[in-house]
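thought: fold this chain, then report.
action: predict
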Amino acid sequence: MSRTLKIILVLVLCVIAILTFAYAPLMVAPGPLIAEHQSLNGDCFACHTAFRGVDSAKCVTCHQTSSIGRLTSKGLPIAKPSTSATFHKELSRQDCVSCHSDHQGVKRYQVTRKFDHSLLQSETRLYCQNCHKPPVDNLHQQIKNECAQCHTQKKWKPATFAHNKFFVLDHDHSATCVTCHVANDYKKYTCYGCHEHTPAKIKREHLEEGIRNFDNCVECHRSGDKDEAKGGEGNEGKELKERD
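observation:
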């Protein structure tokens, strides 16, 4: 490359650098600012730090995390406060731009639902209802603060709940959840909460049939039908079926 060409290239790069800093909104801005931040047009360094991009520390100088959703940046009450805004003070780190962007053109400032729950403090992730309104159907009304047993924080649907896969709730077993699942623990169950089910009686009846492994009832009993055990998928169910 000739010396003249090198000089021209350097000059061009210098001009681009100068224009980038002098006319940043025209050169590098991804779009106009939202209406609420129009007063910052042309003042890139109100939010950006040179060579580092947007600095979340600058965001919280105007937007206090404890007031987001309740008060404006000037301390005035918001007419319709957000019911899910209190979680901002529970974040494990201040990383505003991971969810928010000022450059939305005609769109309003908004949060994606692609929210990364790992930003929350670990103990805060246990209380989904602080941000989310719980469903009001009969099933969810029985379950309090146990979302993680069926749902993940990456995607609400599909849930892992499929009761008929384990036990069919027929007309004789349409009981409330806590009847079989004690203390809201839906990873465990008991059959000893109703009628004749007692550990001693269950043990005696199964031993009479030569069945010694009877700790996991639903392995053989998939519904309230007593005879269904003959077609159960457990080893004892198969052995009983073969003997018959």
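thought: worth noting. The first strand starts at residue 48 and ends at 49.
final: tokens above.
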